[in-house]
Amino acid sequence: MLRKPKVLMSDKCSIKTNHRRPLTIRRKYSLQEPPSVVGGDRFIPTRRNMRNTFVIGDGIDTCKRNGLEANNDHKSKTAVLRGPNGRIKQQYRRFMASTLYELPITTVDHDGLTKRMLNFGSTYHRIVARPHDLISSSLDYLRVLEDVQLIGDTSRSGHYKYRHIDSAPFRSLEAPGILNDFYTNTICWSKDNILAVALGTGLYFWHPSCESGQEFLRMNDERNPITSVSFCEDVPELLAVGTANGEVVVYNIFTGQCFYSVSEHLGMQVGTIAWNKTTLTTGDKSGQLVQHDLRFDRNIVADYTGGHLQEICALKWNPDGRYLASGSNCNTVCIWDNAMPRNNRNSVNPLTFFSGHQSAVKAIDWCPGRRGLIATGGGYADQTVKVWDCNSGHVKSSVNTGAQVSGLHWSRTNLFELLSSHGYPSNHMSLWKLGNDPDLEHVKKVPGFGGRILSMTVSHEEETVATAGSDEQLRLWHIFRSCTKSPSIGLFSTPTFGVPQIR
């Protein structure tokens, strides 16, 4: 049973938000495969051999553009070609032509042209849509835009900008009673910069403007600790809470009221929760995955079956909300298509699965700079981070980290940077960058943990990384930016979450 939560408001510290918008879901569209045309009595030059002045953008920052492109003067054109962005423009044309026309990159020159201007006979292969691919035809054309980001990012061009990263947290908080369970996810940042922390049967909120945390919720049953928390990104005042006995409740943190509840997991620990706009996906100890639409009461949108036989410990939706990745204790990662047809029971089978790990997969994150790329991390018996290409199902990169992987996060501000958190035996964080192959190249190791890292979460603006350790310490880090000024509250100031310290 859940005790009525306290309202998150006080005279000492108040947290406000301007996000007050109704629950909505955007309509999805799909492209149909064009009709096949057989034969013909005329020669028509192939579009792949046209000089492409692509209208969907040239992939270069608008602030770097100058008026030379509009100038027909030959010297101006030469300056643009040989200027700071000339190489990027040339590579962009090659990537665009290679992606749109499905040509090997080696057969396309810097102008986006093939060697032959006119093609006769059977050398031309008609490009058709591939609706059954993981990355569907309706999304294929966007892949070239991801490649443009790949070109423009310094980490992929051989000129990676190394920066100073502190080897110590800028703040440390006592977190007594945190659940020492590898399969749980007990910390989460909201879009309004509120950090939710589950400490045993209690749920606390912390904000940078507050000296200490505030209790929001306390479970009546001491044998029913909180095992997962997750904020809704689109409606940041909604927080989903999962427990060891299978209760899942969605709260409005500013009114303290229950907004929605899920009863499909009763008796089974819910260790992970993921939001996709206004739908809620939950996974339990039996391997069951359920998706609910919060606009309707008790409405199961999808029941994901046939994927996992053991405990679900990781759920992650890709950036556009089309594909769901799930990791479990059966050492597999399943990819689910949100647009797949459902039967009478709304049952959905996995689109594909990866079985390359030798231990439980708790760490999962989609690469924001390259569509279809996903990173996964294995437990103590595996200790590897793998980058998969969901289009081909192949491993693009695999590195042995020397420790169990408990969390992964692709940076949204420094594209192709990957942060990993680790447990036994080394208890550290590592920063990686995606190379050209793509290979993961090690950038920085961050030590300083007194126990294994159980969970890791990153604030919405990536200002702060929070880690929860088995040593009952919540540490706050500056990883994705340089810290030039030390905060007034440092490592040796250890405020608590308002509960008695166990030590």
UniProtKB/TrEMBL annotation:
<feature type="repeat" description="WD">
    <location>
        <begin position="305"/>
        <end position="337"/>
    </location>
</feature>
<dbReference type="InterPro" id="IPR033010">
    <property type="entry name" value="Cdc20/Fizzy"/>
</dbReference>
<dbReference type="GO" id="GO:0031145">
    <property type="term" value="P:anaphase-promoting complex-dependent catabolic process"/>
</dbReference>
<feature type="repeat" description="WD">
    <location>
        <begin position="446"/>
        <end position="479"/>
    </location>
</feature>
<feature type="repeat" description="WD">
    <location>
        <begin position="354"/>
        <end position="398"/>
    </location>
</feature>
<keyword id="KW-0853">WD repeat</keyword>
<dbReference type="InterPro" id="IPR001680">
    <property type="entry name" value="WD40_rpt"/>
</dbReference>
<dbReference type="GO" id="GO:0005680">
    <property type="term" value="C:anaphase-promoting complex"/>
</dbReference>
<keyword id="KW-0677">Repeat</keyword>
<dbReference type="GO" id="GO:0051301">
    <property type="term" value="P:cell division"/>
</dbReference>
<protein>
    <submittedName>
        <fullName>WD40 repeat-containing protein</fullName>
    </submittedName>
</protein>
<keyword id="KW-0498">Mitosis</keyword>
<dbReference type="GO" id="GO:1905786">
    <property type="term" value="P:positive regulation of anaphase-promoting complex-dependent catabolic process"/>
</dbReference>
<dbReference type="GO" id="GO:1990757">
    <property type="term" value="F:ubiquitin ligase activator activity"/>
</dbReference>
<keyword id="KW-0131">Cell cycle</keyword>
<feature type="domain" description="CDC20/Fizzy WD40">
    <location>
        <begin position="173"/>
        <end position="477"/>
    </location>
</feature>
<dbReference type="InterPro" id="IPR056150">
    <property type="entry name" value="WD40_CDC20-Fz"/>
</dbReference>
<keyword id="KW-0132">Cell division</keyword>
<dbReference type="GO" id="GO:0010997">
    <property type="term" value="F:anaphase-promoting complex binding"/>
</dbReference>
<dbReference type="Pfam" id="PF24807">
    <property type="entry name" value="WD40_CDC20-Fz"/>
</dbReference>
